[in-house]
Every structure is written in structure tokens, then in C-alpha cells.
Design a protein that fits this description.
By secondary structure, the chain is an alpha/beta fold. It folds into two domains: 192 residues, Medium-chain alcohol dehydrogenases, catalytic domain (Quinone Oxidoreductase, Chain A, domain 1, Alpha-Beta Complex), CATH 3.90.180.10; 131 residues, 3-Layer(aba) Sandwich (Rossmann fold). The protein contains eleven helices and 17 strands. Strands 3, 4, 5, 8, 9, 16 and 17 form a seven-stranded mixed sheet that branches. A six-stranded parallel sheet has the order 12-11-10-13-14-15. Helix 4 crosses helix 5. The relative contact order is 0.16. GO terms for molecular function: oxidoreductase activity. It comes from Brachybacterium fresconis. Its EC number is 1.1.1.2.
């Protein structure tokens, strides 16, 4: 085993700096020095649900960039010194129909998550990227294209791919009318990517206080969801609605925005939803969802972002301020993604 420093929660759910163990490299593994890791709502939810004396150690973090420091004897895709990016899955069966279709995120045997998952070979619980090193199967790392800022690129590996997959699956491009509901970590990247794809893009937000950001991000207009007149006037205007709101809410007003055969992709809240069937029936509308992405689509996203200069709007904090980032994220005090700089873990003092 090899050791690295990181931030872990025991049964209390509070993150503390500690020494973590990583496996020795298998033949097809690489070791990555983690430089930057985004802070996702999933991390917040995992910590809130974590607890109990028998609960395994939890190390969050599943969107990160860094540099390869060692390669296994059979690893061929990367060399020491390569800049890489890793998302929220680090292994899959690679045999099922989903894996063969390049959708390892939908692996029939369930993919191995970057943290809180079960290693496919020894069953140990995976520990995430709020740490200075990660060891993973090389097939699940991506080459970070030149020109992408490694800190601002880190959120592309979760937030970015989560919105990219439905944009591509729904054929968004020039002439497509897209509405993005919510302007947070997911939403602002959805806007940037939709605009870069050539879509006419609108933001739907609870208030008008982000109007300047809407223009800066390249969107065409802002709809205030609490303004019934404005929302009513927009009824039936959009081909695609990407709903990035992270809490349970009524989908009806957003289904109303869809044109004939339009699609609502519900991306932010992954819990139970309730809808009136007639909200789908009238206009032959569709409701779908997405989460993470397969390896080919993620690689495509990174290349597209490098070509079109798309990265996340971030606030970088040293990893010692991880609790602050989580507290502020919980109250929505970030525009639009926190990224932890893990270099402070090099200092030996606790």
C-alpha cells in the first residue's frame, strides 16, 4: 500500500485531515497527483448522509485534474508527467452492452464510483479526490487538452459531462431553442455549452439578480420563473429544457415551456418527482434525465471545451478551507463552482 494525505469523514460527517492508503499500482493502473478537485452538491449530500460508528471512511471528491506520477507495467495510454482529468467513475465491467456502447456510466454491473464505491477486484471502499493522490485504472482517466486551465477544467468532469450528454443526445445545435433552468454549477456550464453549440439559449431563474451573468455567459435572455406573465408568454417556445435545480420542485411550469415534441431533461434533482400526465400529453412532450457520462463522450467534451474555450467559472480555495466551501455551497454562496487546491497537503503538519 502507499499513503497520501487527504480530507476524510468518519461517522461524524466532519472532514479532518488524515493519512490515507491507496493501493499499490496494478499492471493497468496509473497514479495521479491531484492538483485541483471541484466541490459538487453530491459531496455535500454524501457527507450529510454519512454517519454511524460502523460507517466506512468517506473521502469525497469526484471531478479532478492532476499529473501522472507513476504508471503500471502494462499501462500504455499515459506517461509520467502527462496532465489528466478524472470524473466520477473509475472502473466498469467493460463487457456489457452499455459499456460496449461507450456508456460505462450505465454499466449493467454498476460502475465503480470514485468514492463510496466498491473496488471491482478486492471489494475495498473507494476513497475520493479530496486528497493529494489517486490510483486508478488508466482506461478511466482522460488526457487534459492543452490550453484548458486545470483548475477551471476540473468541474467539466462531473457538472460539465452531466449537461453535455443530454445536449448531444438531444441533438442541440444551431437553431435549437434551449432553456436552462437554474444558474448554478450545472446551469452555467449548460449555458456555455449550449451557446457554443450554436443554440438560442435562455436562462430561467428565480430572480433577475443574475441578469448580468446571463449576458456574460452568452445567453440571449433571462426569464424570471416567479413572473407568471413572463412565463406564460414563453409557453411552447423551447425545443429543449435542461432543469438543473438541485432540490425537489414542480416540473409543470417547465414542461409548459416546451414546444411540440420538446424534451425536458431533469438533471439537478435525482429524487422522486411527480407530474401530471396531461403536462406530457399536450404537445407530445418527453421527460428524460442524465447523469455523468461515458468515456467517449467525456473525451469529446474535453476536446470541444478546448476548441471553444469553455471552462467553469470557479473560486479556488486551499483544501484546508474545504468545510467553508461546503457551508457556502449549502447556502448557494458560490458563482459557480468551488475548486480545491490540494497542494497545501504537501505540508507535513496536520
Amino acid at each position: 500500500m502507499r499513503s497520501t494525505r487527504g480530507w476524510a469523514a468518519d461517522g461524524s460527517g466532519v472532514l479532518r485531515r488524515t493519512l490515507l492508503e491507496r493501493r499499490d499500482l496494478r499492471p493497468d493502473d496509473i497514479a495521479v497527483r491531484i492538483d485541483y478537485c471541484g466541490v459538487c452538491h453530491s459531496d455535500l449530500h454524501a457527507l450529510r448522509e454519512h454517519g454511524g460508528e460502523s460507517t466506512p471512511l468517506l473521502v469525497p471528491g469526484h471531478e479532478f485534474t492532476g499529473v501522472v506520477t507513476e504508471v503500471g507495467r502494462e499501462a500504455e495510454r499515459f506517461a509520467v508527467g502527462d496532465a489528466v482529468a478524472v470524473g466520477n467513475i473509475v472502473d466498469a465491467c467493460l463487457r456489457c452492452d452499455m459499456c460496449e456502447a461507450g456508456q460505462e456510466n450505465f454499466c449493467r454491473e454498476f460502475p465503480t464510483l470514485t468514492y463510496g464505491g466498491a473496488d471491482r477486484r478486492d471489494g475495498t471502499v473507494t476513497l475520493g479526490a479530496f486528497a493529494r493522490e489517486y490510483v486508478l485504472r488508466e482506461d478511466f482517466a482522460h488526457r487534459l487538452p492543452e490550453g484548458l486551465d486545470p483548475a477551471a477544467a476540473a468541474p467539466l468532469l462531473c457538472a460539465g459531462i452531466t449537461v453535455w450528454e443530454p445536449l448531444r443526445a438531444l441533438g442541440v445545435g444551431p437553431g435549437t431553442r434551449v432553456a436552462v433552468v437554474g444558474l448554478g454549477g450545472l446551469g452555467h456550464l449548460a449555458v456555455k455549452l449550449a451557446v457554443a453549440l450554436g443554440a438560442r439559449t435562455t436562462v430561467v431563474s428565480r430572480s433577475a439578480d443574475k441578469a448580468a451573468d446571463v449576458r456574460r455567459l452568452g445567453a440571449d435572455e433571462l426569464l424570471v420563473s416567479g413572473d407568471s406573465g413572463t412565463m406564460g408568454a414563453a409557453r411552447g417556445r423551447f425545443d429543449v429544457v435542461l432543469d438543473t435545480v438541485a432540490i425537489a420542485h414542480d416540473l409543470g411550469p417547465y414542461l409548459d415551456l416546451l414546444a411540440l415534441d420538446g424534451t425536458l431533461a431533469q438533471l439537478g434533482h435525482l429524487g422522486t418527482v411527480s407530474i401530471e400526465t396531461t403536462d406530457l400529453l399536450i404537445g407530445r412532450k418527453r421527460l428524460t434525465s442524465a447523469g455523468s457520462g461515458g468515456m467517449p463522450q467525456t473525451a469529446q467534451l474535453l476536446e470541444f471545451c478546448a476548441e471553444h474555450d469553455v471552462v467553469a467559472d470557479i473560486e479556488i480555495l486551499p483544501s484546508s478551507r474545504v468545510e467553508e466551501s461546503l457551508e457556502r455551497l449549502a447556502r448557494g454562496d458560490v458563482r459557480y463552482r468551488f475548486v480545491l487546491d490540494l497542494s497545501d497537503l504537501d505540508v507535513a503538519t496536520p
